[in-house]
Structures are given as structure tokens and as C-alpha cells.
Design brief:
The complex is a heterodimer of chains A (170) and B (128). Chain A has 2 domains: 57 residues, no CATH class; 105 residues, no CATH class. Chain A has 6 helices and 5 strands, in the order βααβαβαββαα. In chain A, strand 4 and strand 5 form a beta hairpin. The model of chain B has no long low-confidence stretch (mean pLDDT 89). In chain B, helix 1 runs antiparallel to helix 2 and helix 2 runs antiparallel to helix 3. The longest helix of chain B has 31 residues. Chain B is built from 4 helices and 1 strand; from the N terminus they run H-H-H-E-H. Chain B has one domain. The chains are: A alpha+beta (170), B mainly alpha (128). At the A-B interface, helix 1, helix 3, strand 3, helix 4 and strand 4 of A face helix 1, helix 2, helix 3, strand 1 and helix 4 of B. Strand 3 of chain A pairs parallel with strand 1 of chain B.
Chain lengths: 170, 128
């Protein structure tokens, strides 16, 4: 995925600014000694990494719509995580332990690897399901109760990620 | 002052969810269901405790480090859960009694194909 090129001035500046911002957040002082030390180390790292870029066939266009969809996705994920924990707490602390566990085998049509990782992680954090296996387009999920195992294919997270992948394909 | 009370609420929320995770680990019957309890409750429990620490410390450098730790916990925890479940599944660890298996793969393929055929038909009608 990564290739080495001769040197990319815009990329180097971007990496340097990123490292410098991180340094300033960590050190949190405008002392000249701090800034000099930070810029020296940022420069060394920039020289090391500036000739690494993404190969041409993996490049995609960056749009604001992707950022909007990602932010929407993460806010939804936060709500799902809290709901998942409350359901687990209610099931575990219930004296009758009302579980009906089982495996669900289903399809996953996402293709980009980053979005697949996001999908798998969001399944694990969503209420009542954890991912067991993802091979090509075969997805095996373990469900906590039967209610969560059914109709997993039409989940809101999956639809959001499909929508996000659509924006990459152009 | 009010910040500290909010932090206390977050802190006890985190303790509660970690406790639920441990109780689940002790009560639930097999590996997979235990991973449900541990994977989810650890993420939110540790996350809430870190948020409470952020509110208590309230300092840019330490908040940056805590945000880094929080993002790492939120990404690594589900991956470890997935790896343990995957290894258990591939080694053939038995599930608890009364577990079921839904194979939705073929059915969903058919459903998808039917939906695509209907889409094409609708497109043809629109063309006419």
C-alpha cells in the first residue's frame, strides 16, 4: 500500500505541522527551549518519513461528506456502546439469566479494509453481538439473545457504512 | 466544585460497569458469552473512568495523553475480543447447551438478488 518516492514537499510540511501540534499539546508551554527541541525531533522524523506516500492505486478523493458521515457514525457508535452496556448489565444482573446464545452466519458486502475493520469493531461494541469470523464476504457473529441475532443484516451501522463506502467509489 | 461531582458520577459509572463485567465473567456459561460481558463492559468502564480523570485533572497535557489512551482502549478492546472469539471458534470450543445456529448466508444472497431484479424491472418501467 505504501511506496517510496523522491520527496514530497507538501507531504513533509503536513507531517511536520502534525508532529509539531502533537508536541505542543504534550508539552503545553511556549518556552523557546521546548519549541526548539520539539522542532528538532519533528524535523528528524519528517526526514525519515517524508518519502513514504500512499501508492497511486490506493489513493482516493477526500471529500467533506466523508467527514460528516464519519462523525455521524462515531456519535451513533457512542450511543450504541452505552446501550450495549446497559443491556449486558440488565441481563447479567438478572437472577434468571435470560440468555439464548447462538451463532449467526451472514454476508458482508463491504470491500475497503478500513471500513471492514470499522464494521467488525462496531458489531463487537453493539448490543448483543460479537464478531467471530470475517472471511471475504462471510461473516460469523455470536449473538447474546435470539432477538439480537435476527435481522442483523439491516442494522443501522451497516447501512451507515455502506453509505460511507459509496462516497469512496467515485 | 460542580466538576468534581460530575467526575464522581462518571467514576462510579465506570466502577459499576467493570463490576458488571466481572460478575458476567463468573456467571455466564461459555467462552463466547463471557466475551460479551468482558469486551463491552471493559470498554465503557475504562472509558468512563478516564473521562472522570480528565475532569478531575483538567490540564491540556494530561488530557491529551488520556484521550490517546481512551482511543487506544476503544480500538484495541474489540479487536482482542474478536481474536479470542475467533481462536475459540477455530479450535472448536463447544458452546453452551441450547445454543442455536442461524445460517442466513444463502437466504440473504437470494434476497439481495431478488431486490436487484426488482430494481432492474423498476428501471425498465421508468424507461418506458
Amino acid at each position: 500500500m505504501l511506496t517510496r518516492v523522491k520527496g514530497d514537499p507538501m507531504g513533509s510540511v503536513f507531517i511536520f505541522v502534525l508532529l509539531m501540534a502533537f508536541w505542543l499539546l504534550i508539552s503545553a508551554s511556549a518556552d523557546w527551549q521546548h519549541i526548539v527541541v520539539g522542532s528538532i525531533f519533528s524535523l528528524i522524523l519528517t526526514v525519515f518519513w517524508s518519502n513514504l506516500t500512499i501508492a497511486a492505486e490506493f489513493r482516493t478523493e477526500f471529500t467533506l461528506k466523508q467527514v460528516y458521515l464519519l462523525i455521524k457514525y462515531f456519535i451513533a457508535l457512542l450511543v450504541e456502546v452505552i446501550l450495549a452496556n446497559i443491556t449486558v448489565a440488565m441481563i447479567v444482573l438478572n437472577p434468571r439469566l435470560p440468555i439464548s446464545p447462538g451463532m449467526v452466519i451472514m454476508r458482508c458486502d463491504l470491500e475497503r479494509s478500513l471500513i471492514r475493520v470499522l464494521y467488525v469493531n462496531s458489531i463487537t461494541l453493539c448490543p448483543g453481538t460479537i464478531t467471530v469470523e470475517l472471511e471475504d464476504n462471510l461473516l460469523i457473529v455470536h449473538a447474546f439473545t435470539r432477538h439480537y441475532g435476527e435481522d442483523q443484516e439491516n442494522s443501522a451501522q451497516y447501512r451507515r457504512l455502506l453509505e460511507l463506502e459509496e462516497t469512496y467509489k467515485k | 466544585m460542580i466538576l468534581e461531582y460530575i467526575a464522581i458520577v462518571f467514576l462510579f459509572g465506570g466502577f459499576f460497569f467493570l463490576l458488571v463485567g466481572v460478575v458476567g465473567l463468573l456467571r455466564l456459561p461459555d467462552v463466547y458469552t463471557r466475551m460479551h460481558a468482558m469486551g463491552k463492559c471493559d470498554t465503557l468502564g475504562a472509558g468512563l473512568i478516564l473521562v472522570a480523570l480528565m475532569l478531575l485533572i483538567w490540564d491540556v497535557t494530561n488530557i491529551t495523553k488520556l484521550v490517546l489512551i481512551l482511543s487506544m482502549i476503544a480500538t484495541i478492546n474489540p479487536i482482542i475480543t474478536h481474536l479470542i472469539a475467533k481462536t475459540a471458534y477455530n479450535r472448536g470450543t463447544p458452546m453452551a447447551e441450547g445454543s442455536y445456529l442461524i445460517n442466513d448466508y444463502v437466504a440473504s444472497q437470494r434476497r439481495r438478488r431478488r431486490a436487484r431484479v426488482e430494481e432492474i424491472k423498476k428501471g425498465d418501467e421508468n424507461d418506458k
